[in-house]
Each structure stands twice: as C-alpha cells, then as structure tokens.
Amino acid sequence: MLYSPRKTNIHMNNHRLFIYAAIFAAFLFLGPSAVLAAPVVGTVSYPSNIEAGDPATISASVSSGVPIQYCNLYVDNDDKGAMTVSGGMASKAYSFSYSQVYTVFVFCKDTSGGMGKSASAAVWVKVGPTPPSEPFGGAQPDPDPEPEPDPELIDEPASEDVVLEAGNLIKLECSEGAGPNDPCTAVYYYGADEKRHAFPNAKVYFTWYENFDSVVTISIEQMGSVMLGANVTYRPGVRMVKFTTVNRVYALSKGGVLRWVTTEEVATALYGEDWNAKIDDIPDTFYMNYAFGDDIGTAEGYGVTSEMESAPTIDDSLAAAPEACQTCHV
Questions:
Q1: What is the CB neighbour count within 10 angstroms for residue 248?
Q2: In a domain, 147, yes or no
Q3: CATH number of 53's domain
C-alpha cells in the first residue's frame, strides 16, 4: 500500500507530539528525576574461588532511562579501566595481584550526565602470594635514615586478632618491598559503627591526620570480618574541592556536605589570596560520597575554624552525613 508524503508527515508529526506530551507529563507528575534518573548499578558479582594472577570476571547489572556512556571497575578506589557494557550488564576480566581482601565497586555514567555506583563489595582472594608493605601515600625518604634495626627487634605479624576500638586506623599485613600504591597499603578508619571506612586517597587522609604513626596492622582474616562502611570524606574547613567535570568550587561542612562558594571574593575572604592553591579535585566517581548544602554567598555564611571544630573526629562527620546524592547530573 502506498501513502502520500503529506499524510505520512502528518502521522510522524503526531507521533512526535505524543512523545513530547508523554515526556512533559512525566516531568509534571513524576518529577525530573523519573525522566533523567541516574544509572542503577546492581550488586557486584565475582567468582567464589579467585586465585591471584588469574583473570576473574567482575560484573554488575546496570540500567538507566538513557544509554549508558561508560562503566569503570574500581579496586581499592583505584580506577582499573572501562568495562564492557552489553545486555544490561557491565563486566571486566581483572587479575588480582595478591592474596588479600580488596574493595571493589562499579561506577557508571549515562549520556544525560547521570552517575551511579554499586555498593562496595569485599573480594577475598585467598590463594596467591602475600603482598609487600607501608601505608598508601608512602612516607617521604628520610634525608638521614636511621640504621636498620636488629632482626630481633622487628615486629612479627600478630597471630591473634587485634582488639579494635572506634577511631583506630587499620591496614593489612604486608611483606617487604611493596610500593606506595600497592593494594595492601590501603588504610581504613574503624568507626563507632564497627565498620571500616576507606580513605579514597591520601589527600582526604591528610585533612584528618598528619602522619601514619597510629596505623594498626591486622590480619587478612580480621580485615575480611569487618564490614565496609561509607568512604571517609574531606574534613570540613581544611580544603576546598571541585569535581573534575563541574566548574564550581565547594567548601565543606560536617557530614560531607558541599557548599558552593559563589564568588572569588568570598573564596579570598575565607581562604586568603592563595585560595586557588587550596583546592583539590575529586573524581566524578566519588560524587555520591557527598551531599549538597546551601550556597555560600558571603564570607559571613561560612566559618573555616568553626567548621573544622564541628568535626574533630571522622565519626563526628559520619554521624552527621545526610543521604548522599543518588540522582546527580553534571
């Protein structure tokens, strides 16, 4: 059957109008988040018996109202690259280097700018070589190193579980020779909620601590028995931050709440003439670690010292954390 071009165009235009009307109705009655919902990333799946050095397929389901732009695999908060996205699943073959517990999650972004991540999963690689050591970030070389201690003075790994208390900093046992970025060097905060909270990087860590002197080493078995909690966020008042894809600078309040510093004049009044040297970039991956509060339009709207004093410990900040951003768009 043949159709006249005019009639066909009328049908196409009516079809478009129907689609636009449906989208408008969704915005009106369900709200914009229903139309521009962030990707929903499911639970991380992995083989039950992973051996170090052998590729293991890590996967998670992912869905969104618009096409997925990319999904990346993160191991101990380190980006391990793009995953293959097909049929509603993101997957990647990854080889773990050592026998230890790893923190793994999947981060996805869709074509509308929506971002989503899976819950973190603790992946225990039980078979393989023991990792080498020293806290992440690595201590700077001492210009006048002390003599090597006598062998009998070197602490041996504890065979029994350490009694953990809220506020402890913990990491895994490692053998000698590890570089500063080795997975076994990841440091966690042991919170009042009896969970371990990861520091995304050394920049976050050093807003709370000056050194690694109080880090406690525990066994892989004990580390695996401690549940993962929310990531540690920047201590309020110490630094300003921005996201790599968003041209806004934020100051922090207790609970990981970001507050947009609206003008350069306000930033100067709060952090001095060198305010632009006191900004750290946060990867988009950690967008959902934070929530958003009121803008800072005047210097009187934010107190650097009072904000720092509002969170003397990480537990103070964790307890004040509102629900993190779940449907963020950049």
A1: 13
A2: no
A3: 2.60.40.10
Q: How far apart are CA 165 and CA 214, in angstroms?
A: 12
28 three-class SS: helix
User: How do 240-243 and 279-282 pair as beta strands?
Assistant: parallel
Residue 25 lies in a domain: yes
Count of CB atoms within 10 A of residue 10's CB?
11
How many percent of the chain have pLDDT more than 90? Answer: 49
Burial class (CB in 10 A: 0-12, 13-18, 19+), 327: middle
Q: Do the strands 84-86 and 89-95 form a parallel or antiparallel pair, or are they unpaired? A: antiparallel
The whole domain housing 117 covers: 40-124
Residues 88 and 69 in one domain: yes
Confirm if 35 and 114 have CB atoms less than 8 A apart. no
User: Do 181 and 222 belong to one domain?
Assistant: yes
Read off the tokens for 122.
């603790």
Q: pLDDT for 133-176, tens place per residue?
A: 444 433 333 344 444 443 333 334 444 788 999 999 999 887 77
- Tell how strand 169-172 and strand 188-190 pair up: antiparallel
Domain boundary residue, one of 232, 264, 287: 232
Q: Which pLDDT band holds residue 37 (cuts at 50, 70, 90)? A: low
Among the listed residues 223, 220, 173, the one whose alpha carbon sits nearest the alpha carbon of residue 198: 223
Overall domain count for the chain: 4
Q: Is residue 69 within 8 Å of residue 92, measured between CB atoms? A: no
Please state the pTM of the whole predicted model: 0.59
Cα-based distances in Å from 47 to 89, 125, 226, 251: 16, 10, 21, 41
- Shared domain for 103 and 178, answered yes or no, is no
154 in a domain, yes or no? no
Dig out the tokens for 197 from the structure: 């909270």
Indicate the pairing of strand 169-172 with strand 215-218: parallel
Measured CA to CA, the distance from residue 90 to residue 109 in angstroms comes to: 12
Asked if residue 325 is part of any domain, the answer here is no
Helix, strand and coil in the chain, % to nearest 5: 25, 30, 50
Last residue of a domain, one of 59, 94, 124: 124
Planar angle of CA 242, 81, 232, nearest 5 degrees: 45
